[in-house]
Specification:
Blueprint lengths: L6 H8 L26 E5 L2 E5 L6 E5 L2 H7 L6 E3 L24 E3 L7 H6 L4 E6 L4 H10 L2 E2 L10 H11 L3 H21 L7 E8 L3 E4 L4 H8 L3 E2 L1 H7 L8 E4 L11 E7 L3 H6 L1 H4 L2 H4 L3 E4 L2 H8 L5 H21 L1
Parallel strand pairs: 3-6, 4-5, 6-7, 8-10, 8-12, 12-13
Antiparallel strand pairs: 1-2, 8-9, 9-11
Helix pairs in contact: 1-12, 5-6, 6-13
């Protein structure tokens, strides 16, 4: 499931973000320990339980947003992924720019999986990957390098607040992690309060390409963030998705079904083509939200990355760019 480079990739990758259910601590961060700063701590995840004997100093992160949490907790990772999609020329996501220091953090090319030798050379105390998608074999390889905290439940489905709690526990900073969650939720709620019109609207979250159409499901963190703004996921999403994609966070549907997306507002990624090209394609031109100008189709890679890699840092960054467009779309939907 490793994908990089195109918005389709991001769609799929963020597709990597979806449905979450886990018996490994769902709703409580999957953390079995108190994470109150006392060590050792043990953290449950999809491959078992990882014990961290003492507060880590050299931290490697994997996945799309773990570095955001680590930075926010006052720790500088010694290694983190580079992001060709959505990152700048240096491969750093824009909301990480103010934290990133090339002298302290090595960027890792993870396009073909975690680069084990480079990670080992960083001599990490812990590897944190609460929002990743590697398999058990890779987890075992990483665990030979350092205690590794994988994702709970399904790959690419860990909600942002759960990621935050997991990392907070691993770093002995649970109280600080909870404050980050509370502050982020408060900021999102403030936007919802400022836009009561959102509560009257349904939405669909899509990835739209010339020959491929995907819908993000209720289990996807992107969808969950929009719901926190007050909108409701349109029933047509579940109808169109059917039951064939249980256990994932998106559903690819036939292109000709696009006009059946009945949401008041459509939020979408342009997949491999521009937003203008999406709206000009005859099949998408029949989508009710596009017809009434209540669609927000994004083809800016940075914004798309921010919408997809949901975290305590990306949420305020991307909502600053998205809410205005969403407000305009809501106005068109209610006209």
């Amino acid at each position: 499931m490793r994908v990089r480079g195109t918005l389709a990739a991001l769609a799929a990758l963020t597709v990597l973000v979806g449905c979450g259910s886990t018996d490994a601590g769902e709703g409580d961060g999957g953390a079995a320990a108190s994470g109150d700063g006392a060590f050792p701590v043990s953290i449950e995840h999809t491959f078992g339980t990882t014990t961290i004997e003492q507060q880590p100093e050299r931290v490697v992160v994997l996945g799309w947003s773990a570095q955001d949490v680590v930075y926010s907790l006052g720790v500088t990772p010694v290694g983190m992924p580079s992001f060709p999609y959505g990152g700048g020329d240096d491969g750093v996501l824009p909301w990480d720019d103010e934290y990133y220091d090339a002298a302290e953090t090595t960027l890792l090319d993870t396009a073909d999986g975690p680069p084990l030798e480079k990670i080992a050379a960083l001599r990490p105390d812990v590897i944190l990957a609460p929002y990743e998608g590697f398999d058990e074999g890779t987890y075992e390889d990483l665990s030979k390098i350092a205690p590794t905290v994988a994702y709970p439940g399904e790959a690419w489905t860990t909600p942002w607040d759960e990621q935050t709690r997991i990392i907070g526990t691993a770093l002995g900073k649970s109280a600080e992690a909870e404050k980050l969650i509370d502050d982020t939720n408060a900021a999102v709620q403030q936007i919802a309060d400022e836009h009561p019109e959102f509560a009257d609207l349904t939405f669909a979250y899509t990835s739209m390409g010339a020959d491929r159409l995907s819908l993000y499901l209720a289990s996807d963190p992107r969808v969950q963030l929009i719901e926190k703004l007050g909108l409701t996921l349109d029933p047509s999403v579940e109808t169109l998705a059917g039951s064939g994609d249980a256990g994932t966070f998106y559903s690819e549907i036939s292109l000709e079904k696009a006009p059946e997306i009945a949401a008041d507002v459509v939020i979408g990624f342009a997949d491999g083509i521009s937003a203008d090209e999406v709206e000009a394609l005859p099949v998408y031109a029949q989508v009710p939200a596009i017809q009434r100008n209540s669609a927000v189709i994004v083809d800016d890679q940075e914004v798309a990355a921010g919408m997809s890699a949901v975290s305590v840092l990306s949420i305020p960054w991307v909502l600053d760019k998205l809410v205005g467009r969403l407000t305009t779309a809501a106005g068109s939907a209610q006209a």
